[in-house]
Each structure stands twice: as structure tokens, then as C-alpha cells.
Specification:
By secondary structure, the chain is α/β, with parallel strands linked by helices. It has helices spanning 41-58, 74-89, 101-110, 122-129, 143-156, and strands at residues 16-24, 27-36, 61-72, 94-97, 116-119. The chain contains five helices and five strands; from the N terminus they run E-E-H-E-H-E-H-E-H-H. It has a five-stranded mixed beta sheet with strand order 1-2-3-4-5, with helices on both faces. Helix 3 links the parallel strand 4 (94-97) and strand 5. The radius of gyration is 18 Å and the shape is globular.
Length: 183
Amino acid sequence: MSDAAAPDPFGVGLPLDTEVSRPRPGTVLLEVDGEIDTATAPRLQAGLDEAMDAAHAEGSHVVVDLTGVTFLASSGLAVLIGGARRVTALGGRLRLVAASRSVTRPLQVTGADALFDTFDDVASALSAEASRPSDAEASRPSDAEAGRSRAADARGAGASGSRPSHAAAPPPGVAPPIGGVGR
């Protein structure tokens, strides 16, 4: 038996670290630190899979802490969107902790921010967890949540009824993407 550390299957020196922990019962936390791009997205995917598999087995929430992320490319965004879809299929929502513009801006300009519950810090995400059912238990929104959702939809519809409230108009001289702004 050797005392040598197991080799990193994703390569040595990639600028991304992930760590899965359980800061409290009912919550699995994935902490991500570094740059998320094409080279490091597989490492993010592996960490997210580990966190989500553990949460599903335990009936827990998943919180992804992105406060240590300095760059978020489309490949990383794709991993997060895939995770959101997986949690949504189980009746929950993926919780992200994202405070820096390097993370929030890609989420906002693509409209992907609508797929997540986003918090400014881990403490807020964890305290919000105490008042919500776990992702595995949340099969449908409560009557109060459904009412808030309908009210938010009505507020975001605008005059034409077609643009969600989180969408931003493109800069002058730039045509919106096919299918609407932010989509």
C-alpha cells in the first residue's frame, strides 16, 4: 500500500477546486473556487453530480457556493443549467450563492438566473433552507408560492405581455436574439 495521493483525474494544476460538505442536516453544500471554463467544467460537473447524488439519497437541499469563482464561461453555465434541470425534475430548485459580477452577469444576460434561487452569501442560503422543504420533498409549490409566482408573472408581463421582467433590452443598434430578449 502506498502513501502517495491518488492522481487527479482532471489533470494537475487546473484553476478550479470543488468540495462537498454537509454544513447542517438536510443541506449538501458544493463549494467552488477558481475559473470555470471548457477545461474545468468537467470538474464542476463531477462535484455537482456528487453533491446532487448525496442530496437525492438523503432528501437534502443542494447549495452551490460560487463566491470563489472568478470566471464563468458558457461551458460552466451549461453545467449549472443541467443541474438546475435535474433538481427541477425532482420538484425542487438549485440554490446558488453568487455575489460577484463575473458569475451573476452571465446568469442574467442569458436569462438562466430564472432557473435558480440565488443568494448573496452562504449564511443567507442556509437560513432560507430552514424554511423550505427539501428538494426531494418539494413536489409542487404551496398555494402561497403559486400566488407569488402568478403575481410575479403579472408584474413581469409588461405592456406586451411577452417579455419577462428579468430580461434586459439589447444595447442600441443590436438586434435581440431570435425568440426574444434574454432567451
